[in-house]
Amino acid sequence: MKQPPSKAQIRNEIEDQVEEFLKKGGAVEAVKVGSTGLINGELNTNSLGFEQPRQERTPVQDVVAAIELKRRSKLAKNKPKKISRRSPQKKIIYDDFGEPIRVVWQDE
Question: Whole-model pTM?
Answer without folding.
Answer: 0.30
